[in-house]
Design brief:
By secondary structure, the chain is α+β, with helices and mostly antiparallel strands. The chain has one domain (about 1-80): Mog1/PsbP, alpha/beta/alpha sandwich (Protein Transport Mog1p, Chain A). The chain is about 30% helix and about 45% strand. It contains two helices and four strands, in the order αββββα. The radius of gyration is 13 Å and the shape is globular. The model has no long low-confidence stretch (mean pLDDT about 90).
Length: about 90
């Protein structure tokens, strides 16, 4: 959460159209994680993004045109479900 909060402050400065949809603690595979969803305007259109932060170094992020979010959102689920680390 702290990492996303820090990044959010910078995002607000660089993207005046930034709008938080949610930022909350969660778990991923039984370990602490955080999810951050937001929108921002790019050069040509509104984008939506979802970011899953996990552990100390892992970040799974997807951004796509907001108007097509329902089409692209399952891609993040597929990546999340197939993601693994070696320990």
């Amino acid at each position: 959460m702290a990492h996303f909060t820090d990044i959010e402050a910078n995002t607000e400065v660089n993207y005046p159209t930034y709008r938080r949809l949610r930022m909350q603690r969660t778990t991923f595979r039984g370990e602490p994680a955080a999810v951050w969803e937001f929108t921002f305007r790019g050069r040509a259109r509104l984008f939506r993004a979802a970011d899953l932060g996990y552990g100390r170094e892992y970040d799974l992020c997807l951004s796509a045109p907001d108007a097509r979010w329902d089409t692209f959102r399952p891609v993040l689920d597929t990546v999340r479900d197939g993601f693994s680390t070696t320990r």
